[in-house]
């Protein structure tokens, strides 16, 4: 095995991959931040027009704004929680995305019902996640004699 300053190549590979992942997430956060600002500009344009305001478009843009916001928040939490994505943020993003779909594509009642069921399932999953203890009991007691 190749040794570089008391670390083997096998020990360096995860460190290199973690660095690539971290750099990629920083770039993604920057891109999402630019898109977030673009959404704010779109909000101001929609609000400043004196013609008929399309409220569905406005609500869809607000929810898209929150999707960007939640993804950026999730990336921040990833770095704050020692390289771990909290599951609850994925649930928040899923719920927000499904609400946006209902607002944008509500022409078909069956699809709206299915989207609503997906939201219900995500909320139930969030509830189950919150009532489940974060610390798992130590399983070593089972093997003690």
Brief write-up:
This protein is an all-alpha fold and 145 residues long. It is built from five helices and two strands.
Kindly describe this structure.
Keywords: Cell membrane, Membrane, Transmembrane, Transmembrane helix. Belongs to the PsiE family. The chain has 145 residues and is mostly helical. It has one domain (3-132). Helix content is 77%, strand content 3%. The protein has five helices and two strands, in the order E-E-H-H-H-H-H. Strands 1-2 form a two-stranded antiparallel ribbon. Strand 1 and strand 2 form a beta hairpin. Helix 1 runs antiparallel to helix 2 (55-80). The longest helix is centred in the first third of the chain and has 40 residues, at 9-48. It is flat and about 70 Å long. The two termini are 40 Å apart. The mean pLDDT is 84.
